[in-house]
Design brief:
The structure holds two protein chains of two kinds.
Chain A (H helix, E strand, L loop, with lengths): L11 E14 L2 E14 L3 E5 L6 H7 L9 E10 L26 E2 L5 H7 L4 E4 L3 H4 L6 H12 L1 H7 L9 H10 L5 H6 L6 H21 L5 H5 L8 H13 L5 E5 L7 H18 L2 E6 L2 H7 L2 E6 L2 E7 H6 L4 H8 L49 E4 L2 E3 L21
Parallel strand pairs in A: 3-8, 3-9, 6-7, 7-8
Antiparallel strand pairs in A: 1-2, 1-4, 4-5, 9-10, 10-12, 11-12
Chain B lengths: L2 H29 L14 H10 L6 H13 L5 E2 L4 E2 H36 L4 H15 L2 H15 L10 H5 L8 H7 L3 H38 L2 H8 L4 H38 L5 H11 L2 H29 L8
Antiparallel strand pairs in B: 1-2
The chains are: A alpha/beta, B mainly alpha.
The complex binds adenosine-5'-diphosphate, iron/sulfur cluster, magnesium ion and zinc ion (ZN).
Keywords (chain B): Cell membrane, Membrane, Transmembrane, Transmembrane helix, Transport
Family (chain B): Belongs to the binding-protein-dependent transport system permease family.
Subcellular location (chain B): Cell membrane
Amino acid sequence: MNAMNTVTPAPRIAEVKGLKVHFQSKQGRVHAVDGVDFDIRDGEMLGLVGETGCGKSVTGRCFLDLVPQPPADIAGGRVLFRPRGGKACPDCSGKGCETCGGTGAETLDLLNIPAKKMRQIRGEKIAMIFQDPGKALNPTLTIGAQLSEVFLQHKSHELLEAAGVGEGDRGWVAGSLRRQANQREGSFDRWARRFPPLKGPSRRLQKALDEKVAAALAETQIPNPRRVMTSYPHELSGGMRQRVMIAQSLACDPDLIIADEPTTALDVTIQARILDLIKMLQAKRRTSVLYISHDLSLVRKVCDRVAVMYAGRIAEVGTVSQVFTDPRHPYTQGLLNAVPRAGTRRGHLASIPGTVPELVDPPPACRFVDRCPKAMAQCRGADPQLLPVTEGHDVACFLEHPREDTAPETPRLETA
Amino acid sequence: MQLRDYIIRRLIILPFLVFGVSVVVFTLTRIGGSPIGVYLSHEMSAAEVQQLEERFHLNEPLYVQYFYWARGALQGDFGYSGVASAPVSQVFWPKLAATLELSVVSAAVAVMLGLWLGVFAGVRRNRWQDHVTRVVAVSGASLPLFWFGIVLLIIFWANLGWFPVGRSDADIWASMPHPTGLYMLDSILAGSWRGFVDAVWHLILPAITLGFGAVAIITRMMRSALVEELQQEYVDAARAKGLPERLVLNRHARRNALVPTVTVIGLTIAFLMQGAIAAEIIFRWPGLGRWMASAVVRGDQATIMTYVLFTSVLFLFANLVVDIIYAKLDPRVRLGD
Ligand SMILES: Nc1ncnc2c1ncn2[C@@H]1O[C@H](COP(=O)(O)OP(=O)(O)O)[C@@H](O)[C@H]1O
Ligand code: SF4
Ligand SMILES: [Mg+2]
Ligand SMILES: [Zn+2]
């Protein structure tokens, strides 16, 4: 690699560095995520692919501090996030330093910020689309109520403006409206808003809120948003529910969306439509998306770059064309050869023999060694590092980067 | 089905159910023996006894007897209570008022305390607060109510003398009118602070005895329901929107955990009605339960019939209320399907 001609890549909105998430279980420590590195560029769609159980969801949830601790333990690493239009880096006042990775932009370590700050980021700067919209929507609240929460949480000032409450307004009416907008209202507030003088401004606030919700739903091509707003999740189809989830995640126009297998739980017939919708909205807004999937063909269709994950590690990362036309890691090669057959369990691969290794206290070795058709002696005893093979294409395999501490394997001579 | 239609349908069915219950109970009590016992005395001749039997139609077949009983009941005549030495209809309300006061107070406290404790333990799952709550709840659910009541009686009445037994101080009770029969309410209406304190003072031990088991059951149910809800993905989705934990808990998890708990609360009403019998005997509370217990011992069939009929109507109503709350809490519930 030539250190001199580093092309300035697109600014990176997020960087995951050496992320380790372990789970304490009866059998021992499960190394679910064990040293993951990747970055997400501004406005790109990065695919994170791998078999079920390889740690994709845990990695994605780390962005929003949604990994339950315990049983999880963030054993190391950083998840850096640079909000768009953020302030200048406080350490170097914008000149570029180590904290901000030379960008001069405010950089937050999402694993290490106060809970209050995290709550401001959730939904507003980083949003999440969950795998199963039937489970991620509260069954006992209307769609309208659930979408309203995002706006109330992050856009209460706009709503108060619509109700005619200014910054300096004092008095009980302004106070009650503030409580309404900040989701702190009591039963008395709810009762009192049926009568003047609260009635008028409270209605205006509600109307502004409903308009925002309806507009968000309309953007995901939901027909008749007003009717959907008064529906409960069980009254909608799976595809419609996922549109609602997407509308909810896009509500505040976030900088980054974590889409955790957003089409896996859906009927095959609607998967493509939801995928197109996500792609369309992403392209329109230039939102960065971490698209988690176990389905390579989907990732190939919509993503700009792809990171292949195996047993808690990144095996290979590069642009879609680099990884798909020139796969270097034997696991990626296996994935690309895998043709899903009938009877293959969802998320499992047909063509690679063997199973994903136990992640309980793994020894230092390539995680793929027991299934790898090209495994060598040097593949055990040390972890392969994720290193570049060409510009922007990194692979963690001793085939590409032989260990320096062991003699390179002598190629076997063909005996005629 | 619309909730209103459901309620109407259930209310229409109600009289038929009550009819069915009354037939069963009537038959069972009559199998137990003739109700004539409470009217008899040693001096009566065989002829006199037969005269009495004819007067009360006891010589007729069972279904005719039922007919006479039902006709009386429909007219508000539930027979003569030998235990109370008065017509059942006359003593029923004052006794019911005493039982209502006791069970409503302990039910209300038990529901509030149980829900609160369940949430308290559920959000602190597997921490020491959860373990302490569990120990208290398990003991509450497994201690026999009569034993627990007697222990309270021995400690706080016999030894420490902090609390009285019975329902009231006779002088204070006599010092005011009793338009409702509910002592606490009557004392408020009469503006008697002394009476109110007296009412509460007498209520505390039997209410604790009666409510402890209910608190335990509600706590355990609410805790496990909340723990389950907190593991659902919509809770993480709510967090992912940026909601503070206060709203994640109150608006999402806790509300949904109430759905299964409401059913259990409905069942504890049954538990309370049964428990009231023991609590009233232990604390000499002049309510329905104690009356019923004496009636069973003395074969006072008019009282038994009325009591059982009343409790069955109460359960049917309690079920209806539970169904309504259930449907209000969970939009997925399709009543009557
Ligand atoms: N809540 C949890 N408790 C214990 N172990 C967990 C938990 N969540 C995830 N894991 C562990 O992490 C591994 C990776 O999980 P996950 O990230 O959900 O996989 P993926 O999304 O790639 O299918 C799982 O195999 C499991 O062992
Ligand atoms: S490091 Fe070795 S075992 Fe691992 S993928 Fe490369 S060749 Fe296979
Ligand atoms: Mg997953
Ligand atoms: Zn800096």
